[in-house]
Amino acid sequence: MNLTISILGTGYVGLVTGPGLAELGHTVICADIDTQKINSLNKGIIPIYEPGLKELIDKQVKLGRLSFTHNISHAIQKSDVIFIAVGTPMAENGAADLAYVKAVAKTIAENLNTYKIIVTKSTVPIGTGFMLKALIQSYAPNAQFDIVSNPEFLREGSAVNDFLKPDRIVIGCESERAKKVIEHIYAPLVRDYRPLIFTDIPTAEMIKYASNAFLAVKLSYINELSRLCDQVGANIADVAHAMGTDHRISKHFLQPGPGFGGSCFPKDSQALAYTANQYGINMHVVQASIDGNSEQKKYIATKTLSHINRRSDQKTVAILGLAFKANTDDIRYSQAFDIIAQLQKEGCSIKAYDPLAMDNMKKEITTITYCSTPYQALEGTDAAIILTEWPEFKTLDFNRIKTIMRHPIIIDSRNILNGSELIKQGFTIDQLGIHPRVTEESDNSTNQPCHYAQSQDPHSDTPLP
Ligand code: UGA
After folding, report:
1. Is 90 exceeded by the pLDDT of residue 193?
2. Test site for ligand 1: of 12, 158, 160, 260, most ligand atoms within 8 A of the Cβ
3. Is the pLDDT of residue 260 over 70?
4. Which of 3, 145, 211, 432 allows an S-S link to 226, with CB 3.0 to 4.6 Å?
């Protein structure tokens, strides 16, 4: 079966799914109404930073399996399968905004020249598949089509790898005809022993939210424990390591941090709670995770202020890292927004550095000083916060930093530094739930956090030692 697939929307999801499906051997047309973006893509300019993506796109374009167009109607007409990958941003009330999905459904309906399978890849509220079916039928009563839900589980920063080596592929589907085609699309991955899970459409939609909200709950839980560790003198790194060795818990997503950010967990947790609320169900656990996340961001800002308030009237804080996590230039729902706002409210001036995300942040926050090196950001500051776990922050020249900061205080909200070593060098290091953390005077030789806590990459699949 030789299939042509169109992907509508060239955001993160579309730009990874399209080249990924081309890599599986299909002919793929990526379409977007943003002419400028399509023109750039046709010149080989990729609008997002995603490791391995440019190479994959270049390869597939060269092989003639991948193309980009702003002629959406033409893309739909030429395709057997259409993936909807447009944005579903968070509306004011916490619900997912389906305006783009509905607009694209109308365009699809207007161009259904043959039987087509319409797949939702965007994260859409439970019930959207059925809503789309009714909507398209209302625009095109005689059209032949099937709706499929195929949620994505791509992590930014490792999305290409996640697409080509998924833990599972979830397919919500009502028709045998559509099922066979989708099976064919993913056949190369299934041969690789990646499970294809078939279910109905609302269940597939639910699986996506359930997975993201669960991971968010896990993070809020470990973050909450890190706050308690700070109080009771326990070590969160050891707690997480020991918990993670229990296979029922698993070691993943147990790295405490400044709260979860990004375009998915905050939005999807809110959207799930909103949907449940509409059905009269209170999602206490999900709501607690959302609240705990706000708490964690406040905690980092308050922790920082507790060090500088008593030391200085002039308060300048360096923020190292603006992206919501490492390996991405994405700042959507970055923890930096709330933490910077709270520090500014308390009268702090902010200097910031991020290896990739500064251009994006400059469009959003204009009241901070952007610096072209971490050293420039740190110069003359009363404290620094490591907000994103960029590997380069681990290997900074701390001897130099000691001489350029007004007060050598570092709040390491990702626990990536060797705190004990830096304390010996005269720094005040405050990590999350790791002791000792504050006093330069303390003898910390017997109380170091485990080595694995210092080197654990929260996104790594490498087993802990
Ligand atoms: C998340 C999910 O992991 C993907 O499976 C899903 O497909 C995606 O959302 C989506 O819905 O599109 P992503 O938002 O790229 O992926 O980022 P994650 O790696 O999940 O991290 C989310 C946040 O949690 C980040 O702020 C990160 O720093 C934080 N985090 C993650 C921790 O603080 N500790 C951890 O141990 C792991």
Report:
1. no
2. 260
3. yes
4. 432
Ligand 1 centroid to residue 265 C-alpha, Å: 7
Q: Which residues pair with 349 in a beta bridge?
A: 316
Residue 351 CA to ligand 1 center (angstroms) comes to 26
Within 3-82, where are the H helices?
Answer: 12-23, 35-42, 53-62, 72-78
CB 128 within 8 A of CB 100: no
Mean pLDDT of 125-148: 96
Atom of ligand 1 nearest to the CA of 259: 33
**DSSP assignment of 300-368, as one string?**
HHHHHHHHHTTT-SS-EEEEE--SSSTT----TT-HHHHHHHHHHHTT-EEEEE-TTTHHHHHTT--SS
Q: Collapsing DSSP states into helix, strand and coil, what is residue 145? A: strand
DSSP β-bridge partners for residue 385? 319, 411
Mean pLDDT of 259-272: 95
Q: How far is CA 330 from CA 99, 264, 269, 371, 458, in A?
A: 23, 12, 19, 18, 17
Residue type for 369, please?
A: T
Ordered alpha helix ranges (H), 186-313: 187-190, 201-232, 236-244, 265-278, 284-308
The answer to whether the CB of 416 falls within 8 A of the CB of 389 is: yes
Each residue's pLDDT tens digit, 334-384: 999 999 999 999 999 999 999 999 999 999 999 999 999 999 999 999 999
CA of 404 to the centre of ligand 1 (A): 34
Pairing of strands 145-149, 169-173: antiparallel
Output the pTM of the full model: 0.91
